[in-house]
Design goal:
Elements: H1 2-12, E1 29-31, H2 33-42, H3 46-54, H4 70-83, E2 85-86, E3 92-94, H5 96-102, E4 103-105, E5 109-112, E6 114-116, H6 124-144, H7 155-189, H8 192-216, H9 227-253, H10 256-283, H11 291-322, H12 328-332
Antiparallel strand pairs: 1-6, 2-3, 4-5
Helix pairs in contact: 1-6, 3-4, 4-5, 7-8, 7-9, 8-9, 8-11, 9-10, 9-11, 10-11
Length: 333
C-alpha cells in the first residue's frame, strides 16, 4: 500500500494539462482505499466501532496513514462498507455507498478505484495524452503489487479505444469497399475505364468531407467516422446511374458533348431530386437536441450534396476524357 501511495504521488506530480487539479496545482485524485483510511483517522468514533464489531484494533504506529496490518485493513473496510464512516451520531464523512464505490470488498479487498478528472474529455488528443501519462504508471503499479491487475479506464478512455478500433476498421474496410465497388462496376459496365471513372467521384467525396470536418472543427467520433462508408454506397449509385445513361446517349448520338448534355437533362435531374430528398431527410437531424446526432445529420446531408456535385460536375469531365467521338459506336457496344 505504501508503494501504491508513492505511485499516486507520481500521478499528482504530472505536469500534463489534461487533468483536473487541486488549488495547490496537483492532479486531483479522489476515491480509493486511501480516502477510506483518511476518513477513518478523521472520525472520532470509527476506530472504536471497528474494534467493537470485529475485535481488531486499528493502529498506525509509523504515522503513514495506513493501518499497520492487512487484518486491520480488511476489518476497517468491512465495517466501513456496512456502516460508512461516521463523524458523529448524525453526520457521516463517508456513506456506505461512497465506500463501496471506492473499494470493492469481498473478504480481502478485491479492488479499489481512484478517480481523476479530465479537462476537455471530448477532445481525443486530451484523452490520448492522459492515457499516455497514466499507462506507464498503471503498469508500474501492477509490477509493484505482484499478482494485481491495474488498468486505466473510464468513459473517455473507453470511447477513445472504441474510436481507435473504429478508425482501424475503416482504414481496412474503406479500401476494400472501394476495390469491391471497382470490381463490380467494371464487371457490369464491361469496361475498366468506366469502372475507374465511377470510383474517382467517391474518393473525392471522402476527401472533401473530411477536409470540411477539419476546417469546420468537427471531431471524428464513433458516429461521424461511419459517414465515409455511407458516402461510398451513395456515390457509387449516383456514378453508375450517370455512366449507364451516358453510354446509351453516346451510342445513340456519337458525340460526347451531346451525350453529356442529354444525360444531365435526364438522369441528372433524377439524381438531383433523389439527392435533395435524402439531404433534406438527413438534414432534419441537424435540429436534434443531441449534438452527436445533429452533427451526423448535418454531415451526412452535406456528403450527399458533395456526391451529387461530384457526379454532375467531375464525372462528366472524366467521361469526356476517356471516350472520343470517333469511337463512340465501339464504346457503346
Amino acid at each position: 500500500l505504501a508503494q501504491l501511495r508513492d505511485r499516486l504521488d507520481e500521478v499528482r506530480a504530472l505536469d500534463t494539462p489534461s487533468f483536473g487539479r487541486t488549488d495547490d496545482g496537483d492532479v486531483s485524485i479522489e476515491g480509493g482505499l486511501f480516502e477510506v483510511f483518511d476518513a477513518a483517522w478523521e472520525s472520532p468514533a470509527m476506530i472504536a466501532i471497528v474494534a467493537d464489531q470485529t475485535g481488531v484494533a486499528i493502529t498506525d504506529t509509523d504515522g503513514d496513514g495506513i493501518p499497520d496490518t492487512a487484518e486491520q485493513v480488511e476489518a476497517l473496510v468491512a465495517v466501513a462498507s456496512e456502516t460508512g464512516v461516521p463523524f458523529d451520531a448524525e453526520r457521516s464523512i463517508l456513506t456506505p455507498d461512497e465506500v463501496t464505490t471506492a473499494v470493492s470488498f469481498d473478504g480481502p479487498v478485491a479492488a479499489t478505484v481512484f478517480e481523476l478528472g479530465l479537462v476537455d474529455s471530448r477532445a481525443q488528443e486530451s484523452v490520448a495524452a492522459a492515457k499516455d501519462d497514466l499507462g506507464p504508471i498503471a503498469a508500474a503499479i501492477s509490477d509493484d503489487l505482484d499478482g494485481s491487475f491495474v488498468q486505466v479506464t473510464g468513459g473517455p478512455f473507453v470511447r477513445e479505444a472504441s474510436l481507435e478500433g473504429t478508425n482501424r476498421a475503416l482504414q481496412v474496410s474503406l479500401p476494400v469497399a472501394v476495390i469491391l465497388c471497382l470490381i463490380v462496376a467494371t464487371t457490369f459496365l464491361r469496361s475498366i475505364r468506366y469502372g475507374l471513372a465511377s470510383i474517382v467521384p467517391i474518393l473525392m467525396v471522402v476527401a472533401w468531407l473530411y477536409a470540411f470536418m477539419e476546417l469546420a472543427g468537427y471531431a471524428i467520433n464513433l458516429v461521424t467516422a461511419t459517414i465515409a462508408a455511407v458516402s461510398i454506397g451513395i456515390g457509387i449509385d449516383f456514378a453508375i446511374h450517370f455512366i449507364a445513361r451516358y453510354r446509351e446517349e453516346l451510342g445513340r448520338t456519337g458525340n460526347r458533348r451531346s451525350a453529356v448534355a442529354a444525360t444531365g437533362e435526364g438522369t441528372g435531374v433524377a439524381l438531383l431530386a433523389s439527392a435533395a430528398s435524402s439531404a433534406v431527410g438527413f438534414g432534419i437531424l441537424a435540429l436534434a437536441p443531441m449534438p452527436l446526432f445533429a452533427a451526423y445529420g448535418l454531415l451526412t446531408a452535406l456528403m450527399i450534396v458533395m456526391a451529387l456535385v461530384a457526379t454532375l460536375v467531375v464525372l462528366p469531365s472524366l467521361l469526356t476524357l476517356i471516350t472520343s467521338d470517333r469511337r463512340a459506336a465501339q464504346v457503346a457496344s
